[in-house]
Amino acid sequence: MKPVPKNGVLDIEIYVPGKSRAPEGIRLHKLSSNETPLGPSPMALEAARGASDKLELYPDGQASALKAAISEVYGLNPANLLCGNGSDELLSLLCQCYLAPGDEAIHTEHGFLVYDIQIRAAGATPVVAPEREATADVDAILERVSARTKLVFLANPNNPTGTYLPFDEVRRLHAGLPGHVILVLDAAYAEYVRRNDYGAGIELVSSTENVVMTRTFSKIYGLAGLRIGWLYGPEEIVQALDRVRGPFNLNALAIAAGAAAIRDRAFTDRAAAFNAEWLEWTTRELEALGLTVTPSVGNFVLVHFPEEPGKGAAEADAYLTERGFILRRVSGYGFPNALRMSIGVEEANRGVVAALGEFLQSSRS
Ligand SMILES: *Cc1c(COP(=O)(O)O)cnc(C)c1O
To answer: How far apart are CA 65 and CA 1, in angstroms?
Structure first.
């Protein structure tokens, strides 16, 4: 006799975070976890320092100051907001509250791996909808909806592809779902997107009963280390999640820093402009080397390598690591011969392009 976890837990593939090692003495550029190279707003840092004065006190369990800042910036009712210890916690709460053994949840073929983990952790069954050209396919998702389906996860834009669904496609997806299914719009990269036909989902949440949108402070706000996410959804769903979460799921530094970060809109605008410039440059330069790059609207690119011995993603990864550039292997996402590269500082982007140019040359001879 020995303790055994409930069904599903041991079927979970452990999430492997981006690497962060480089050989000794070499400047490291960590481009493996889609963190911003610009760091957080100085105002966020100052707020965190201020909050660190009173660490003996429990934080505000409602994270009211953070909700107030989010509602101020986006014009949302705080009753429709829930904050989480990263958006990962919000995804987990959705699964814990709405999935039971026998239920199904749909995610797309190259969707964020956390969905599969949390669906299984809730004892439910993940259902995978194939993508088209590394982009979510609304019809393929709708074809897989059954009476057992409770959640549909859509990362928009998606990680690790960087592709997105225009908002009219998201609306069509919602229109095809039965009322008992929650559509989860994971908009972790929304602040980076510069497309007129994109929408993170606020309008859809506001006008329906079964859509939630999740956001994060880990990407453009540069606060991944503090773990802050938020969810906008119908009051009934927010209240259900609120019952199950830990009573102090956000720490005091996170509440203070998050509120200051989201109010510093000038900083966020600069970060988005910086990314747009280097995303375009990096895509263009990598394509000029003969590599295939999936068109991205996020702060990263998915780079596909030639199917030739010595020129694949594994060899490129080793070559870049030796030079201090840490990218992400994405075999677990169904791309065994691609690497995901987060957009870094100028030196990092130029360095990766130069190193890959040498790599492709050297492996040819
Ligand atoms: C990075 C990322 C998140 C953010 O997760 P946090 O827990 O908020 O750090 C969420 N969804 C996707 C698709 C991501 O790539």
So the answer is: 49
pLDDT tens per residue, range 37-52: 999 999 999 999 999 9
DSSP state, 132? B
Q: Judge whether 90 lies within some domain.
A: yes
Residues 6+ apart with CB under 8 A from 348: 29, 31, 37, 325
Distance CA 177, CA 151 (A): 10
Contact by Cβ (8 Å): 333, 155: no
Describe the crossing of helices 252-263 and 64-74 by its angle, rounded to 10 degrees.
20
Provide the 8-state DSSP code for 135. B
Domain that holds residue 221: 42-263
**The pair of three-digit structure tokens given for residue 264, joined into one six-digit string:** 């510093």
Residue 198, domain member (yes or no):
yes
SS3 of residue 158 by DSSP = coil
One domain for residues 169 and 235 = yes
CA of 91 to the centre of ligand 1 (A): 10
Report pLDDT digits (tens) over 180-235: 999 999 999 999 999 999 999 999 999 999 999 999 999 999 999 999 999 999 99
Q: Which ligand 1 atom lies nearest to the CA of residue 217?
A: 8
Does 122 lie in the same domain as 27? Answer: no
Does ligand 1 have an atom closer than 6 angstroms to the CB of 224? yes
| 323 and 220 both lie in a single domain | no
Q: Which of 216, 244, 263 corresponds to the end of one domain?
A: 263
Pocket of ligand 1 contains residue 276 by CB under 6 Å: no
> Domain boundary residue among 231, 263, 295?
263
Name residues whose C-beta falls within 8 Å of residue 363's C-beta, 6 or more positions apart in sequence. 308, 310, 311, 315
Residue 277's contacts (CB-CB under 8 Å, 6 or more residues apart) are none
Q: What is the pTM of this model?
A: 0.96
Residue 144: phi, psi to the nearest 5? -95, 5
Helix/strand/coil for 141: helix
Instruction: Indicate if 277 and 227 belong to the same structural domain.
Output: no
CATH of the domain at 182: 3.40.640.10
Q: Is the CB of 159 under 6 A from ligand 1?
A: yes
Q: Are residues 170 and 287 in the same domain?
A: no
